Amino acid sequence: MSCFKHSAGPFAVDIQASPKEVWAVLVDFDGWQRWNPFMPMSRNITRSDGGAVQKGDMVEIRLRDKMNFKTVITVAEPGPCLAPLLCSL
User: Fold this and answer.
1) Is the pTM of this model over 0.85?
2) pLDDT value, residue 80
């Protein structure tokens, strides 16, 4: 199962962590800037209380080039593809 599609094609990365640890990092939107320097700001604007991410949640993202956008979580379940899948609005 491919989580991300890129103009260069799908890709995969091996991570030395448990699926539970990886999922926790991926759904910690406020923490994305710690591991992704291209996203200095991201936050779940639906759940400002830090609750568990759910399908339908809206996430605001600012890219390093100052581009801002909001996305809706379309899938939020740990599984073979550990990623909150985003669909641009």
Assistant:
1) no
2) 56
Tokens of 53: 């991410």
CA gap 3, 44 in Å, rounded: 20
CB distance 85 to 4 below 8 Å = no
Distance of CA 14 to the CA centre of its chain: 17
Residues 6+ apart with CB under 8 A from 50: none
Indicate the residue type of 12. A
DSSP-derived letter for residue 7 is: T
Domain ranges of the chain: 19-88
DSSP code of residue 26: H
Q: Give the whole-angstrom CA distance, residue 80 versus residue 71.
A: 22
Predicted confidence (pLDDT) per residue in 4-57, tens digit: 444 555 667 777 888 888 888 888 888 989 988 888 999 989 987 777 888 888
